[in-house]
Automatic annotation (TrEMBL):
Coiled coil: none annotated. Keywords: ATP-binding, Cell cycle, Cell division, Cell shape, Cell wall biogenesis/degradation, Cytoplasm, Ligase, Nucleotide-binding, Peptidoglycan synthesis. GO terms for cellular component: cytoplasm. Its main location: cytoplasm. Cell wall formation. Catalyzes the addition of glutamate to the nucleotide precursor UDP-N-acetylmuramoyl-L-alanine (UMA). Residues 312-424 form the Mur ligase C-terminal domain. It catalyses: UDP-N-acetyl-alpha-D-muramoyl-L-alanine + D-glutamate + ATP = UDP-N-acetyl-alpha-D-muramoyl-L-alanyl-D-glutamate + ADP + phosphate + H(+). It comes from the Bacteria. Its EC number is 6.3.2.9. The gene is murD. This is UDP-N-acetylmuramoylalanine--D-glutamate ligase.
Length: 448
């Protein structure tokens, strides 16, 4: 039985459909709620709109009239919709709660929940935890920011199935009661300030992951992150640290080249397939969360000895004439690209650029020591060109990532790494970072 009976709202505005809004609307309608939908691109003839209307939804077409809020008790908004949106601003001014569908998913299931957030490493850690639990014979489903709508999963699982949720700051800002049994906080670095406006707001959104926990719950946190260490004192759950620098008796750590959890040896670091020193943090976090959920050591070792990474995150693509191509399209901020560059000792041709969010790129400079050339594209190519000129790295300006792959190949020699790690979101030229990465992969295959 779901907890939606405890959801204290009846008249609900769903703002923005896409995947999450559609799933939320369906779930609410199926549970007898009065649902109004406002989506700027909705048309009366759309099959989806007709389906939702047949289920009882009222739809406001066209623009975003403030009248859509009339008599509504709560707004369920698409995570990508800004808090500057006129309906969202109006709702907040009238003290109408604004949530995302992750909050709704929490009410729809009695299943144990593991939530994972951080500025970087979320998808890798989420995937590792899911595989470790699954390999231990424990029923598990993954959802959230990883691309699978949490509401759909919550409706489809029983209370014995663990739900592993990758959670963005956009999703977490829209939570009120959301409470994971195990919260994982990987790192907090400056990101998405165009959305959150201040670093303090961004940090607060991330820390929502543990704000409703009790002493029955666990919070797995990065003891090497100064921002997290400053915030973790507010957590009520049982603290389980992880560290790549120090032994943490109550958590996960590395000692003498081996990974441990609470003093128990798990695996030798040399037996781990996943590349990149930054991934050791993700691995320690995953080990801690999986062990807390009951995963077996043998299953954890098998996963770490075989898992080489998720698509678009430092994904090895191909070797062509001695050049190794890596797709790190999911590096949508500077920190992610810093970590990617730190993963290689070979000479690197860096492919970077994308949506201009107002960032400067000087923080990349210390990580460009092995970069012998840059191929730049997108709205930020001019800013990145200035960086290349400042540190005297040869560069080429390209129209898009497909052209950049070809130009990087001609710029390289045998033994080089050709790395797509844009340090920017994709939305200036591509709908998603996945589309950008797929275009890169196709361009590499054409080079063969």
């Amino acid at each position: 039985m779901s907890k939606l009976a405890d959801f204290p709202y009846y008249r609900i505005l769903v703002l923005g459909l896409a995947k999450s809004g559609t799933a939320a609307a369906r779930a609410l309608l199926q549970h007898g709620k009065q649902v109004r939908i406002n989506d700027k691109s909705a048309k009366p003839e759309d099959r989806l709109i007709k389906e939702l209307e047949d289920l009882g939804a009222e739809v406001f077409y066209g623009d975003h009239p403030l009248e859509a809020l009339n008599n509504m008790e709560i707004v369920v908004k698409n995570p990508g919709i800004s808090y500057d949106h006129p309906i969202v601003r109006e709702a907040i001014s009238k003290n109408i709660p604004v949530i995302t569908e992750v909050e709704l998913a929490y009410y729809l299931t009695e299943s144990p929940i593991i939530g994972i957030t951080g500025s970087n490493g979320k998808t890798t850690t989420t995937t590792l935890i899911t595989k470790m639990i699954e390999s231990s014979g424990i029923p598990v489903k993954v959802a959230g920011n990883i691309g699978i709508v949490a509401t759909d999963v919550a409706l489809s699982i029983d209370e014995d199935t663990t739900m592993v949720l990758e959670l963005s700051s956009f999703q977490l800002q829209g939570t009120e009661k959301f409470r994971p049994n195990i919260a994982v906080l990987l790192n907090i670095y400056e990101a998405h300030l165009d959305y959150h406006k201040t670093f303090e707001n961004y940090t607060a959104a991330k820390c929502n992951i543990f704000k409703n926990q009790t002493e029955e719950d666990y919070v797995v946190f990065n003891a090497d992150d100064p921002i997290i260490m400053n915030e973790i004192s507010h957590a009520k759950g049982r603290l389980v640290p992880f560290s790549v620098k120090n032994m943490t008796e109550d958590g996960a750590y590395i000692s003498s080249g081996k990974i441990y959890f609470r003093g128990e040896e798990i695996i030798h670091v040399d037996d781990v397939v996943l590349v990149g020193n930054h991934n050791l943090e993700n691995i320690l976090a995953a080990v801690a969360a999986a062990k807390l959920r009951g995963a077996e050591n043998e299953a954890i070792r098998n996963v770490l000895a075989t898992f080489s990474g998720v698509k678009h995150r430092l994904q090895y693509v191909e070797t062509i004439e001695g050049r190794k191509f890596y797709n790190d399209s999911k590096a949508t901020n500077i920190l992610a690209t810093q970590k990617a560059l730190a993963s290689f000792t070979q000479p690197v041709i860096l492919l970077a650029g994308g949506l201009d969010r107002g960032n400067e790129f000087t923080d990349l400079i210390p990580y460009l020591k092995n970069v012998k050339g840059m191929v730049l594209f997108g709205q930020t190519k001019g800013k990145l060109q200035q960086i290349a000129e400042q540190v005297h790295i040869p560069y080429i300006l390209a129209e898009n990532v497909e052209q950049a792959a070809e130009q990087a190949f001609h710029m390289s020699v045998e033994g080089d790494v050709i790395l797509l790690s844009p340090a920017c979101a994709s939305w200036d030229q591509y709908r998603t970072f996945e589309e950008r990465g797929d275009m890169f992969i196709q361009a590499v295959h054409r080079l063969m």
